[in-house]
Design goal:
With about 350 residues, this protein is an all-alpha fold. It is about 65% helix and about 0% strand. The two termini are about 45 Å apart.
């Protein structure tokens, strides 16, 4: 048992957890059987078995059963269920498109009335959810703490669960990027979707085959770059904002010394063996060139190779906007991996003007 717990704690290291999650995510999209009823039941049994056995461990039980964290556990199950349901219906509909079966088609003129069908369904749902909340409030104490004390902050001090993704991003970016720019780009990207999406297929029905790239990018951003960050911030970030395995004790006295360095320090001090230039422009010129190449050359390479069909169908303006949003999104896992592996803090660091990337 201890060996299994040690393996799981090791795999929960974000340096391994993130690539493992990405690999499983990509493989699952290429295996329709994963989204079948049988595949969904197998995944549910495995997750429930893992939770049941893990609850025997006191450290795991303390974290998972905290009143603050119980809704997040439920959120994980709900997100998993509805993601499976949507993909299951998408693959099922793709089969019908490939081999039409009139026996499964809906009768012509079939309708569902708002009254009484929808109203009754909503009424029953309201009653059941009200009963659930009453039972929940009886058996789980409200996570109320003492009044705020500026001289004593909790350790770890965490934001509400819906802001834990932003709090995790603050580890890798300046507040103006993690708290303002990236959330704004998420909103702008969603608003720009009708303008960028030139694929007429998949409107009004579930499908994956006809919208592979669109669904893959959306699920990657939502599941990997948002839900996974919430899981990291809730269950793996402990005292002093250190990472802990699911079965590790959250030791408040554990301190991990970090020597985060900027790209300019890597280049001038470590690689060239000289001091940093006194002029901020010369000091950060390599980082600025790297960022400029990332946002200018990368779209050109993708337009000539892997994304050439998108470029031809979208046109240069739409394609450039799409690539800018995609590159901003993928900059997050890139920055996370760089911080975890080589302790890279900023690619461009200009504290003289409070500008850091």
């Amino acid at each position: 048992m201890e060996l299994v717990q040690s393996i799981i704690n090791t795999l929960s290291d974000p340096r391994l957890l993130l690539p493992i999650a990405i690999v499983i995510f990509l493989i699952s999209l290429r295996r329709p059987g994963f989204w079948s009823i049988k595949g969904g039941l197998i995944a549910l049994v495995l997750v429930l078995g893992f939770m049941s056995v893990s609850l025997l461990d006191p450290n795991f039980r303390i974290i998972v059963t905290k009143p603050d964290n119980v809704p997040i556990v439920a959120l994980i199950f709900l997100v998993g269920f509805f993601a499976w349901l949507a993909m299951h219906q998408a693959f099922q509909h793709d089969k019908l498109i490939a081999k039409p079966d009139t026996s499964e088609a809906a009768p012509a003129g079939d309708k569902v009335w708002v009254w009484p069908d929808l109203v009754y369904t909503e009424l029953i749902t309201m009653v059941l959810l009200s009963a659930l909340l009453i039972v929940w409030s009886i058996f789980l104490k409200a996570p109320l703490e003492e009044p705020a004390n500026p001289s004593m902050a909790p350790n770890p001090s965490k934001a509400p669960w819906y802001f834990l993704g932003l709090q995790e991003m603050l580890v890798y970016y300046d507040p103006w990027i993690a708290g303002v720019l990236l959330p704004s780009l998420i909103i702008v990207g969603l608003m720009a979707t009708p303008f960028l999406d030139v694929n007429p297929k998949g409107n009004g029905y579930f499908t994956f085959k006809e919208r592979k790239y669109e669904i893959t990018i959306f699920l990657f951003g939502f599941v990997i770059l948002w839900i996974l960050l919430i899981i990291l911030g809730t269950f793996l970030r402990g005292p002093n904002w250190n990472f802990f395995g699911p079965y590790q004790f959250w030791d408040p006295h554990r301190l991990l010394p970090l020597n985060n360095v900027n790209l300019s320090e890597f280049i001038f001090v470590k690689w060239l063996g000289r001091g940093l230039p006194s002029n901020w422009f010369l000091r950060e010129l390599p980082g600025m060139v790297l960022v400029l190449l990332y946002f200018t050359v990368t779209p050109l390479i993708f337009a000539r190779k892997w994304f050439k069909p998108f470029f031809m169908s979208m046109g240069p303006i739409r394609f450039q906007i799409m690539m800018f949003l995609l590159l901003c999104m993928f900059s997050l896992p890139i920055k996370m991996v760089l911080r975890w592996t080589i302790n890279l803090k900023y690619i461009v660091a200009i504290p003289e003007y409070f500008f850091n990337i």
